[in-house]
């Protein structure tokens, strides 16, 4: 089951990097939640269900000329996958932004039920009951 969870997360990240909303949303259960409440951006909030999640990502992507997520590792714990990463973003006027976070994906029956963003790997690992 854990390898299946990791593969679901990999597929979703690949779709996110390609801004392929159809493939991305196929990775999410219809009642999934994206918890971006720890963000320091204007996108701070919690998004529930396909409609809200799809709208969130489309607005997020539209604010950047380019955005890519660089994955540093994948650590799984039961139904959760911790993904420390660096987001590389370039604004419409060429301003480059780099953000380091850790994502925690909860995956059940091959679909993402929850995505939470944390400030760093330690905080994410603690949230899933692991420590470095």
How many strands appear in the DSSP assignment? 7
Radius of gyration from the alpha-carbon trace, in angstroms: 14 Å
SSE ordering = HHEEHEEEEEH
The DSSP helix count reads 4
Strand content: 35-45%
pLDDT below 50 for ≥5 consecutive residues: which ranges? Answer: none
Helix/strand structural class = alpha+beta
The N- to C-terminal Cα distance equals: 23 Å
Task: Specify the helix fraction band.
Answer: 25-40%
The chain-level mean pLDDT equals 94
Largest sheet: 7 strands, mixed
Shape: globular
Could you characterize what this model shows?
By secondary structure, this protein is an alpha+beta fold. Helices cover 33% and strands 42% of the residues. The protein contains four helices and seven strands. The chain has helices spanning 2-17, 21-26, 49-62, 121-127, and strands at residues 28-35, 46-48, 64-71, 75-77, 80-91, 96-108, 111-118. Strands 1, 2, 3, 4, 5, 6 and 7 form a seven-stranded mixed beta sheet that branches. The longest helix is centred in the first third of the chain and has 16 residues, at 2-17. 24% of the residues are buried. The model has no long low-confidence stretch (mean pLDDT 94).
